[in-house]
Amino acid sequence: MSVVDEIRSELSGNTNFDEAHEGELFERIAEIEEQEREGKLIPGLDKTDNILIAAMFIVLGVLPVVWYAVMYF
User: Fold this and answer.
1) Is the CB of residue 15 less than 8 Å from the CB of residue 22?
2) Which of 16, 17, 48, 57 is 20 to 30 A off residue 63, Cα-Cα?
3) What is the dihedral sign for C-alpha 22, 23, 26, 31?
4) Is the whole model's pTM more than 0.70, yes or no?
């Protein structure tokens, strides 16, 4: 069973489109799912992103807690 057939069996009749538009919709959904499986749709985070996430966590999460702990101790 192809991906388009699986999508058709799940969604057929529930989209409020006529059959011609439903077929095109199912093909587009299958294409998007294939790109998602291959990792082409949404790329992963690179090293720079991870460094920025860690820096923001430290600056916005840890430092305020330490600051208030020192100020009220």
Assistant:
1) yes
2) 48
3) negative
4) no
Which pLDDT tens digit goes with each residue over 3-33?
778 877 777 777 777 877 888 888 898 899 8
Backbone φ and ψ for 48, nearest 5 degrees, come out as -60, -40
Give, in order, the Cα–Cα distances in Å from 32 to each of 9, 23, 46: 17, 14, 23
The residue count of the chain comes to 73
Q: Find the farthest-apart pair of alpha carbons in the chain and give their distance in angstroms, rounded.
A: 70
Contact partners, residue 2, CB within 8 Å, separation at least 6: 30
Q: Which element (helix H / strand E) includes 68?
A: helix 63-71
Tokens 């790109």 correspond to 35
